């Protein structure tokens, strides 16, 4: 016998193999458990306590839903932040995402120069949102910005709480539309060309073909794009933090959580309750995403 | 060899032809014009940054931004030294490279086990990793921050004495967050590899680790390349964790150093422009040189290849 082992199917494992396979699973699992899932549970638990972050862990007292009640009643930035996150979502969902889809459909028609068009539109995707905020300062700055130079206005587009959210959203949409275009374009490339030909032979117009034939077969990617849009709106953080740390018209839930932890006043229980609200919203999205992404398995 | 004689190529030629707006369409100019306008609008903010980064502040202050002239390289010299970019690029390198390598290795391990063996808990395992990738990081900040502050590490490991303010801590967090996406993409890729490969390997007595290193990983090179490019961009662009976990400005990687730059460059938009271009250069290089991999990486996850 050349080998000590006899072939018993490809799932057979020697003792050493078993150790290797276990390590291959256990090491990454422990890391993710430690730095993602354990903190997620910790956040939820801390949200029911009054910990100020200074005393020992033994000094923690449970306070029930008090943090949540405080957030809703005596924490002024909370409702504006909720509102801003919803506006963020609405703008991405109703404007930036459809724009990205439209761009994908236009680019997909394959006219000459497609590569140039495609690259120009998705160029912002490789930049961080923090940098996007920085670059758009050239347009928005009060004294030296292009926008005021053209219009002759004196608006401080990043500073004025009446307009800054919208100014930021234009910049965020600039990036988001490119991202969606890229995802959607990949989906469109996967559509069976004979579907289009069949629709054409049946005399359907381009628009009808898209809405009645292409859109329905793209259902999985549609849902992924929608979930990505929701997650991006919930996670929005970098751009407002770079501009003014999420204050003065740019409050977002993510920024409030961060302020409560790294800011001067560290209110752990309170910040955790805010974070738990984020977790609750995101868990719905995560479940939808997982169901789509792993359907084939 | 005539290309047209090949029926497959002929079919491809037909498919590559523009579907609409073809010769018989009356509005064949409309689409290119619309796309050109869109592209120019989309490029505009970056072009504006590029042009102004080469312009003298005194000149634009006098003539306004809607003018032409006053070209200089001084902004780059000033932005580079005032922004301390040498240091921040070095920090970015020290964070990004280990994080990307570790992410790819660990996710390849998980993906290999999930794809290679048909165990019942595979789907749950993949879900466990992928979901972790989608949670909002801010929601996990408090426990991570407190843990990192409490965990003492030897000074040879991190000069801050704790995981907070250390590159190692930041690298671990990045790895934990990105492993899910990569494991998902790689497992889909590995599932498409023919099982017969492993069969013959097992018959030849190859251990699991040999199968992993000598069969699976080499065959996954395209997927690994795409993910490496994508992850390099993402981790280089990562802002939140670096900002909160590394609190000292001189430890910040490039992207987080924008925090300080906005204050420092506040009075001079041309410096902002030069700084923006400097920060964007690594990702723009990726964009122009490795575009194919970047797009492949991003879309592999969304469309299952």
UniProtKB/TrEMBL annotation, chain A:
Transmembrane residues, as ranges? 20-40, 86-107, 119-139, 165-186, 268-290
Q: Which PROSITE patterns match?
A: ABC_TM1
Membrane topology classification? Multi-pass membrane protein
Instruction: Specify the domain of life of the species encoding this protein.
Output: Bacteria
**Which UniProt keyword terms apply here?**
Cell membrane, Membrane, Transmembrane, Transmembrane helix, Transport
According to its UniProt record, where is this protein mainly located? membrane
Q: Which GO terms describe its biological process?
A: transmembrane transport
| Cellular component terms per the entry's GO annotation | plasma membrane
Report domain ABC transmembrane type-1 positions: 82-289
The answer to keyword GTP-binding applying to this record is no
- Compartment(s) where it occurs, according to its Swiss-Prot or TrEMBL record: Cell membrane
Q: Mind telling me which InterPro entries this protein's record contains? A: MetI-like, MetI-like_sf, UgpAE/MalFG_permease
The family note in this entry says: Belongs to the binding-protein-dependent transport system permease family.
The name of this protein is Carbohydrate ABC transporter membrane protein 1 (CUT1 family)
UniProtKB/TrEMBL annotation, chain B:
Q: Is Transmembrane found in the keyword set? A: yes
Q: Where is the composition biased (Basic and acidic residues)?
A: 8-20
Location(s) in or outside the cell = Cell membrane
Q: Which InterPro entries match?
A: MetI-like (IPR000515), MetI-like_sf (IPR035906)
Q: Where is this region: Disordered?
A: 1-20
Tell me where on the tree of life, at the top rank, the source sits: Bacteria
Write out the entry's keywords from A to Z: Cell membrane, Membrane, Transmembrane, Transmembrane helix, Transport
User: What positions does the domain ABC transmembrane type-1 occupy?
Assistant: 89-290
Q: How does the entry describe its membrane topology?
A: Multi-pass membrane protein
Q: Which GO terms describe its cellular component?
A: plasma membrane
Tell me the Gene Ontology biological-process terms attached to this UniProt entry.
transmembrane transport
Residue stretches spanning the membrane: 29-51, 89-114, 121-145, 165-186, 271-290
Question: Which PANTHER family did the record assign?
Answer: ABC TRANSPORTER PERMEASE PROTEIN MG189-RELATED-RELATED, SN-GLYCEROL-3-PHOSPHATE TRANSPORT SYSTEM PERMEASE PROTEIN UGPE
Family membership noted in the UniProt record:
Belongs to the binding-protein-dependent transport system permease family.
The protein's name: Carbohydrate ABC transporter membrane protein 2 (CUT1 family)
């Amino acid at each position: 016998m050349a080998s000590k082992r006899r072939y018993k199917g490809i799932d057979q494992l020697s003792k050493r193999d078993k150790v290797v396979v276990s390590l291959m699973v256990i090491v990454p699992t422990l890391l993710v458990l430690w730095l993602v899932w354990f903190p997620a549970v910790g956040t939820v638990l801390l949200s029911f306590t009054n910990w100020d972050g200074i005393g020992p862990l033994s000094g923690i007292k449970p306070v029930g839903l008090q943090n949540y009640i405080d957030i809703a009643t005596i924490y002024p930035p909370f409702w504006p932040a909720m509102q801003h996150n919803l506006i963020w979502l609405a703008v991405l969902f109703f404007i930036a995402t459809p724009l990205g889809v439209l761009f994908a459909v236009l680019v997909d028609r394959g006219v000459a120069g497609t590569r140039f068009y495609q690259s120009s539109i998705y160029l912002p995707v490789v930049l961080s949102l923090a940098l996007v905020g920085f670059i758009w300062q050239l347009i928005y700055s009060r004294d030296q910005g292009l926008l005021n130079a053209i219009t002759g206005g004196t608006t401080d587009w990043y500073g004025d709480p009446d307009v800054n959210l919208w100014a930021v959203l234009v910049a965020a949409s600039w990036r988001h539309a490119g991202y969606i275009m890229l995802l959607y374009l990949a989906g469109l490339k996967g559509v069976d060309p004979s579907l289009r030909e069949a629709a054409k032979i049946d005399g359907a117009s381009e628009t009808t073909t898209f809405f009645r034939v292409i859109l329905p077969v793209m259902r999985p990617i549609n849902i992924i794009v929608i979930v990505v849009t929701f997650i991006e709106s919930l996670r929005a953080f970098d751009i407002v933090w770079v501009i003014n740390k999420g204050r003065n018209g740019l409050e977002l839930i993510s920024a409030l959580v961060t302020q409560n932890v790294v800011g001067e006043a560290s209110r752990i229980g309170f910040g955790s309750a805010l974070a738990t609200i984020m977790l609750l919203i995101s868990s719905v999205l995560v479940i939808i995403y997982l169901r789509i992404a792993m359907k084939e398995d | 060899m005539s290309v047209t004689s090949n029926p497959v190529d002929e079919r491809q030629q037909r498919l590559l032809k523009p579907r609409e707006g073809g010769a018989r369409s009356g509005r064949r100019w409309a689409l290119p014009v619309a796309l050109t306008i869109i592209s120019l609008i989309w490029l505009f903010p970056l072009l504006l940054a590029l042009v102004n980064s080469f312009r003298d502040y005194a000149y634009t202050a006098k003539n306004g931004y809607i003018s032409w002239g006053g070209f200089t390289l001084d902004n780059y010299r000033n932005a580079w030294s005032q922004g301390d970019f040498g240091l921040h690029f070095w920090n970015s390198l020290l964070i990004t490279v280990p994080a990307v390598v570790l992410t790819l290795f660990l996710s390849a391990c998980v993906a290999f086990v999930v794809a290679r063996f048909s165990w019942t808990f595979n789907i749950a395992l993949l879900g466990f990793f992928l979901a972790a990738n989608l949670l909002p990081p801010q929601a996990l900040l408090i426990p991570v921050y407190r843990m990192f502050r409490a965990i003492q590490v030897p000074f040879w490991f991190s000069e801050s004495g704790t995981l907070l303010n250390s590159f190692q801590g930041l690298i671990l967090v990045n790895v934990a967050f990105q492993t899910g996406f990569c494991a998902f993409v790689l497992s889909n890729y590995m599932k498409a590899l023919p099982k017969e490969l492993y069969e013959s390997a097992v018959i030849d007595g190859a251990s699991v680790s040999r199968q992993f290193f000598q069969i699976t990983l080499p065959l996954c090179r395209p997927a690994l390349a795409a993910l490496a490019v994508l992850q390099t961009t993402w981790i280089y662009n990562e802002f939140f964790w670096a900002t909160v976990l590394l609190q000292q400005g001189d430890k910040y990687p490039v992207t987080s150093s924008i925090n300080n730059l906005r204050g420092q460059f506040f009075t001079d938009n041309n410096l902002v422009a030069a700084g923006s271009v400097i920060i964007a250069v690594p990702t723009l290089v990726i964009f122009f040189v490795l575009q194919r991999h970047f797009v492949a990486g991003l879309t592999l996850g969304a469309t299952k290849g």
